[in-house]
Amino acid sequence: MSESLQQHYHKIIQILGEDVTREGLLDTPKRAAKAMQFLTDGYEKNLSDVVNDAVFESDMDEMVIVQDIEFYSLCEHHMLPFIGRCHIAYLPNGKVLGLSKFARIVDMFARRLQIQEGLTKQIAEAVQEVTGAKGVGVVMEGKHMCMMMRGVQKQNSSMVTSVMLGAFRNNQSTRNEFLRLIGK
Q: pTM (2 decimals)?
């Protein structure tokens, strides 16, 4: 895949009117291909491998929150970055998930072409799937380069999305507790 990507980046640079033989651009197709492979390596991962059996029996039944998980992704509309923070909460139902696995789940889905709304839903559903929790809440805050660098060019704009499942959807006090604890 890398060789093919390199060839396409080479052609794109030419189409833009640049001299691909210029010193500063000689290795750009290779570097761009390598970067794109890294930025989209979520396609090469699956939930089972990411979680890697790090689900543990537990009698914990109070809310667990992991907040301020940094993420970066590429929007499927312009292939421009959007970056931000993800906050995840769940109500364990006999099982807890290893702490680092939350960040790994976020990264797996973020490193695919998509929109923030879909990313939020994928993360919530994945946490629900692997933990069997009584409820899951995910809030994501993102800054989108497609809105900041092009189009309307609004530098201070941000987007907040949320997905609430189970008790977080059905119980207003549970939802409020989560939002209060993450400062929303």
A: 0.94
